[in-house]
Structures are given as C-alpha cells and as structure tokens.
Design brief:
Largest sheet: 2 strands, antiparallel
Number of domains: 1
Shape: globular
Helix content: 55-70%
Strand order of the largest sheet: 1-2
Structural class: mainly alpha
Strand content: under 5%
Distance between the termini: 41 Å
Order of helices and strands: EEHHHHHHHHH
Number of helices: 9
CATH topology: Tetracycline Repressor, domain 2
Radius of gyration: 18 Å
CATH class: Mainly Alpha
CATH superfamily: Tetracycline Repressor, domain 2
C-alpha cells in the first residue's frame, strides 16, 4: 500500500527510505534472516532468467526452497518483493562505494564521480538481477493477475513513497559523498546528474551487454563537467 507520508528507518546510522513495497515485517532471528535473504537472492536470479514481467512469487519461493506462506510473511506480493530487492541493491552499492572511497581517497567531485560510475557498472555486470532491477525497475512491468490489490506498482517510487527513485538515490549519495560533493548543496543537482547518467548508461548497455566503454567514458565526462560547473 502506498504510504501517505514519508517513513524513515535507521539502518547502521544511515537514513533509509521506506518505499511503497516495504516488507510486511523485518526478520529478527537468524533463521528468518537467512530465509529473507534467500528469497531476495532467488528473486534476483529469476529476474535474469524470466524478466520482471513473468516473475511470480510462487517461482521465487520454489527457487528459495521456502514455503510460499513464508514469503507472504515478509512480502505482500511481487511488488514488495521487487521493492525490497531494489533497496538491498542500493544498500550494497553504497557499501561498495564507501569502501572504495575509504581505500582510494578520491579527490573532489571528479574522483567521486569516477568511483560512483565504476561501482555501478561493476554491479551491472556481475550482480544477479541488477540489469533488470538496479535501484528501480529497468524493465517495463505489465499489470498481472498477481499485482497487489491495494495498489498498482509505481516503478518510480520503489525506494520511497514520496520521492522518485533517482531523488532517493541522490539523497543517499549526497550523505555518503558529503566531504567530496558537499558544495553542491541541495540534492537537486545530483538528481539531475543521476537522470542524465541513467539515460547514458542504459544506452551503453543497449549497445553492448557488458557496457560500451566509449559511452561509459562519456557518462563520466558528462557528470564531471556538470557537477563541477
């Protein structure tokens, strides 16, 4: 169900948006956590095999080797399952990016841009399901009989009920890169940059399944120029 107001949860000291498909409950016990992660892993793997449109909760539960009732303890349906996977993708991306920033100490906006693009490309190439669902749906998702009756999936608001996906990502990126991009002020600049990067990188992966190197380089150049302006 679409939330009427913005809900926030604290995760590891970071502000995390709660989207329209937030899980029904968060697992606490280790066994439940393992099942929850297996369901998300199964969802990611099936996205690569059948795409978002043909994905069903029954197949996800079977792949994860858990009862379908267990899936519905955590997720209200396919939409909330996809939203949870998108949120996990974003958390893992930010964790990977934070580790690279800590290890490589990039200089200024240009260094931050290069690492941010490189980590996104690395996940696009290697992480199951990421090509279909990064931080929001890449594929068009048709209405199906399995759609949640309480609300149709809004693919632009998987991460936050009140913010579109790119704005939600921009806010998290600004928190992470504040020492490097703090001079940008409000998240609007980063949001526009993300919209531009999203379009160019989609083009790069349409041109080459591994990402066209020339277009990836152009994406970096575009972002450096815009954010440094």
């Amino acid at each position: 169900m679409r939330q009427s107001g913005r809900m926030k949860a604290e995760t590891g000291g970071r502000e995390q948006a709660v989207g329209i498909g937030a899980p029904r409950r968060r697992p606490v016990q280790q066994r439940s956590q393992e099942r929850y992660e297996r369901l998300l892993d199964a969802c990611a793997g099936l996205l690569d095999e059948v795409g978002a449109g043909a994905l069903t909760t029954k197949e996800v539960a079977q792949r994860a080797q858990v009862p379908i009732g267990t899936l519905y303890q955590f997720f209200s349906g396919k939409e909330s399952l996809l939203a949870a996977l998108a949120a996990r993708n974003l958390d893992r991306y930010l964790d990977r990016l934070a580790r690279r920033i800590g290890a490589e100490h990039p200089l200024g906006v240009a260094g931050f841009v290069d690492l941010a693009v490189e980590e996104f490309i690395a996940m696009k190439r290697a992480v199951p399901g990421f090509g279909h669902l990064d931080f929001g749906l890449v594929d068009h998702l048709p209405t199906t009989a399995e759609a949640e009756p309480s609300a149709a999936l809004d693919p632009e608001h998987l991460l936050d009920a009140d913010l579109d996906n790119n704005e939600a990502v921009a806010r998290r990126l600004q928190l992470l890169g504040a020492p490097l991009v703090g001079s940008l002020g409000v998240p609007l600049t980063l949001r526009v940059a993300l919209e531009a990067a999203d379009a160019v990188l989609k083009l790069a992966f349409r041109a080459d399944p591994e990402g066209d190197p020339a277009l990836i380089a152009e994406c970096k150049r575009l972002l450096r120029g815009y954010l440094a302006d």
